[in-house]
Amino acid sequence: MSIIERAAEKIKRSEQEKKTSEVSAASMVTPENNKDAGHENLKSTPALAGEKIQSYQDKSDAIGQPELIFKLNLQSLAQNGLIPPDGMRDMLEQEYRRIKRPLLSNITGRGAMKVSQGERIMITSSLEGEGKTFTAFNLARSLAQEQDSEVILIDADNVRQTLTKLLGLSERLGLLDALAPKGPSASEIVVRTDIERLFFVPNGTRTPTGPELLSGNRMEQLLTKLTASRPRILIFDTTPLLGTPEAVILSEAVGQILIVVKSGVTQRNAITAALHPLDRKKSISFILNQIQKSHGDPYNKYQYGYKYDA
């Protein structure tokens, strides 16, 4: 029995214990049977921003295994601050359309010099709480609207695993598992979402040797496999640059580095310290996040993200 099949059976047993209705392995995930997302307050237990994998898609992937679809719950995404509510999303989408254009030019070489490994984009910050996870998620969604490539959003934050937790995928094998000796293959850790062309890789099983796994040879082999068969853009949500070594290590494996700066909060000396260990030959850019344009709007901080090239 494959790892994917074992994971599916584990989820199925869990659902039976909770006396929820069993979903046929041949059925599609639909809004009608997709009702397991939690709605707890983020400050206590996060509301899951995705549904548990409930059924097989009616097709197989490249290695002949049934492919699982993971349905994202937009209401829970908004509750957890990963996206603003409906009325605010149009402006956000316009901002990310503007942000992604230089990144795409660096990948294709159209209108700019092509960046080596430009399809690998790392989203980080100097310190915690500057909006890097929000930026990584929404940038990945925006890039997935492009017709020429798929997007894989990778939770590379070994410390907090925020995306993995919010999406309810903590029990899934992920990046750290694939980097371990005799770990799962690349295809076994990639989760297809119900957003066309958008995939997700959970962080995986916690380990004290996470930094060493990121710097090992298996990391480069994994990233090569993820982009070998078809055009793909890899978006990494990482730890902050200051305090832990993971982000600096990962920066060596990517072509583009996007640093999120919180407007009016991030100190210049923190930015300088964060930049110090990075290879300045890489494409390094900044997003100024949470620019205040008006008062009284709790989601106003998400409306304006401005990108500056380093």
Describe the structure concisely for a colleague.
It is built from eleven helices and ten strands. By secondary structure, it is of the alpha/beta class.
- How many separate helices? 11
Number of domains: 2
Strand content: 15-25%
Largest sheet properties: 10 strands, mixed
Domain CobQ/CobB/MinD/ParA nucleotide binding: 121-253
Keywords: ATP-binding, Nucleotide-binding
Biased composition (Basic and acidic residues): 1-21, 33-42
Region (Disordered): 1-42
Give an overview of the whole structure.
It is a single chain. The radius of gyration is 19 Å and the shape is globular. It has eleven helices and ten strands. The chain has helices at about 5-15, 75-80, 85-110, 130-145, 160-165, 175-180, 185-190, 210-215, 215-225, 245-250, 270-275; strands at about 55-60, 65-70, 120-125, 150-155, 190-195, 200, 230-240, 255-260, 285-290, 305-310. Residues about 1-10, about 10-45, about 50-65 and about 300-310 have low confidence and may be disordered. The chain has two domains: about 1-80, no CATH class; about 80-310, Rossmann fold, CATH 3.40.50.300. Helix 3 packs across helix 4 (about 130-145). A hairpin with a 5-residue loop joins strand 1 and strand 2 (about 65-70). With about 300 residues, the chain is α/β, with parallel strands linked by helices. The chain has a ten-stranded mixed β-sheet with strand order 1-2-5-6-4-7-3-8-9-10. This is CobQ/CobB/MinD/ParA nucleotide binding domain-containing protein. InterPro entries: Bact_polysacc_biosynth/exp, CobQ/CobB/MinD/ParA_Nub-bd_dom, P-loop_NTPase, Wzc-like_C.
